[in-house]
């Protein structure tokens, strides 16, 4: 079982520059190897203090040069904002630089502000993602990219440097599947599932198993483990762990609501995102405070013993194995607190998850 961390570089600090926040986060990624983690992932976000990681390929190339064994997770490349040809080229280059350590997740993005700033119509996101994802996956597998679709017409071209044929991509490609219509797409593409914890285990477990069954129906076998991402607090004192979780995971939830406008009413009118409207309506009905409490409860936090038990319970409720991923620094948490949380998790939790 691989256990990884996620870098988000969220500047909710009152007295730290963007550069200081960014470099603290990148250096946390380097430190993760010594702390015992198996992979370092980096999101892609633009134009906002929600997450300052506009080029995760470049960030992970730096981490690759400072480490020896951790896998490097693009989590994710948002395809409607990127030329699929460039995604394939950058993936191959980073895979060569790291000697086969790259893991690639593909996503379609969710923030209207980011879509508007890029000048990409959000209504086109599903068509753009589906078209680009097939091009990217086929390009990595064959070393040739081409496309005859309306969004990304691309004449056939051989990629140089070519991908290493001795390093197959079969289990190294994920798709972010956060909505009901994304799950069958990920299954049809033949890629693993990546999901962020927002709801209770039963809700996410249903989605994970739907992907598994659709994948098996399409490809004749079950997929490799899905990646399940949490925002995590780990502390030796249970009361302090709960205090930190309510404060920082709760504040992170508020940043999610603000960045994505999850409490808004525009989702029902945005093609490909209509299912998000029910979640937005639930947030408004429950109230922001109650919704935040539920979000904190859904994400992993506590002492090492409590955290291991939470993962055990999740596995039982999912009914299947999964790959655990954790973000440790967010919502203005002091970097020292985040580093202590990550190191304790790496020392006390990671070995026990592997022993399960």
Can you walk me through this structure?
The protein has helices at 18-35, 56-66, 84-97, 112-118, 125-142, 182-189, 201-219, 238-260, 276-286, 288-298, 304-318, 335-355, and strands at 3-7, 39-42, 71-78, 102-107, 144-147, 154-158, 173-176, 192-196, 227-231, 233-234, 301-302, 323-327. Helix 1 runs parallel beside helix 12 (335-355) and helix 9 (276-286) packs across helix 10. It contains 12 helices and 12 strands. The strands form 3 sheets. It has an 8-stranded parallel β-barrel, surrounded by 7 helices. Strands 5-6 form a two-stranded antiparallel ribbon. The protein is an alpha/beta fold and 356 residues long. The protein is globular, with a radius of gyration of 19 Å. The model has no long low-confidence stretch (mean pLDDT 95).
